[in-house]
Amino acid sequence: MKKQKPDNLKGFNPFNQLPQEIIFTILDLLNSNPLDIKSFSLACKSFYAAESKHRTSLKPLRQEHLPSILSRYPNIAHLHLTRCSRVSDTCLSFVSHACASSLRSIDLSRTHLFSASGLLGLALNCNNLVEIDLSNATELKDSAMAAVSQAKNLEKLWLARCKSVTDLGVGCVAVGCRKLKSICLKWCLGIGDLGVGLLAVKCNHICYLDLSYLPITSKCLSPILKLQHLEDLVLEGCFGIDDDSLAVLKHGCNSLKSLDVSTCQNISHNGLSSLVSGAVGLQQLTLAHGSPVTSSLADSLKKFSMLQSVKLDGCLISYDGLKTIGNWCASLRELSLSKCSGVTDEGLSSIVTRHKDLRKLDITCCRKITDVSISRITNSCNSLTSLMMESCTLVSREAFVLIGQRCHLLEELDLTDNEIDDKGLKYISRCSQLSNLKLGICLNITDEGLIHIGRGCSKLLELDLYRLAI
């Protein structure tokens, strides 16, 4: 005879008795895998309801699903609409009313169709909105910026490639969004000294400013460098900036920690010497695709005791320049020499034997280095977590054994288009922290080598086997 449940247990669900805090803690631990979250929500009605309340980030595939999705998830704070190629003003109006005060950031960087009207609804109804990404919205004009300026609590604004926005539009943002801390104006070709100057004067909390490829001159640098909280300044491709422009740095910008002047052909060691007296706290410097790295240029930067990261990608670099970098008083943690012509075993060795605390090293396409460099790198820099050495074609198979023997902390390794073989992979499999390994066009490896990697690198998340004949 089938036993019947007691009346007091009918409809009883033990999961309903769990405190909501415990369920939310479980969901936090499952966040890394969307399939785990889905399985959890389908377990029972109480878990389904809890997951709906707990979710704060959403990345829908199609805009027509938004009404049903947002009705299920009432606490969305971060909305990514990058997979919806077309987002209308009607859609944004619905979002602004459904999310209201809970919405803190919205990403519209790959979407089209919306206009100033939809943005105005977001700005007025979502009073806690602190971040908007409008990158690639080439059709947006100054009227859209006037709408954005109504978001009084906005702290981050991304306008990359908004080529129709002018100084007038940025001026509206500067006047309305006084709490701005980060703004990207990369490739906004309609913005010049006036608009940038207004931002610097009105938004004095700015700590990140990207002015890449803007037609600006030294006129706007003076108010920019007066920003007391400015830490990251990107001037990539600003051809109007030269040595005389950087002279204003002599008056001081003590808060500056990162400066990018890559692709600025008119900046030499004379301009960079201005940094020494002004930006004394500089930690990261990017000079990629710029002037040749000579001993004079390297010598102008030797007094930066806090400098940790230097990127010289694509520069012509001399042996004397590399030797001078090796003599810097700072202890570099990151050095990028990707596609630098002039890098030799002697020059590279002079750096790695002095800067033994290097964590990241990029020597991509340094085609003159040999096993000598790999021996010096692995012997001196045992704490490397990232080594990028694509197309170092003069490095022999035997040298890759040294990487596995000496650099056990590696998390990222790019060996694309190199002579590594199965024996090299056997030793590299000892790098148990490896999460990203690139082996594209490595024609000497077989299944045997990959088996070693599979057994030894349990934390591997990304494996590139492009054009492998296995």
Automatic annotation (TrEMBL):
Residues 69-273, 327-465 form the F-box/LRR-repeat protein 15-like leucin rich repeat domain. SUPFAM superfamilies: F-box domain, RNI-like. Pfam families: DUF7885. GO terms for biological process: SCF-dependent proteasomal ubiquitin-dependent protein catabolic process. GO terms for cellular component: SCF ubiquitin ligase complex. It comes from the Eukaryota. This is F-box/LRR-repeat protein 15-like leucin rich repeat domain-containing protein. The lineage of its organism: Eukaryota, Viridiplantae, Streptophyta, Embryophyta, Tracheophyta.
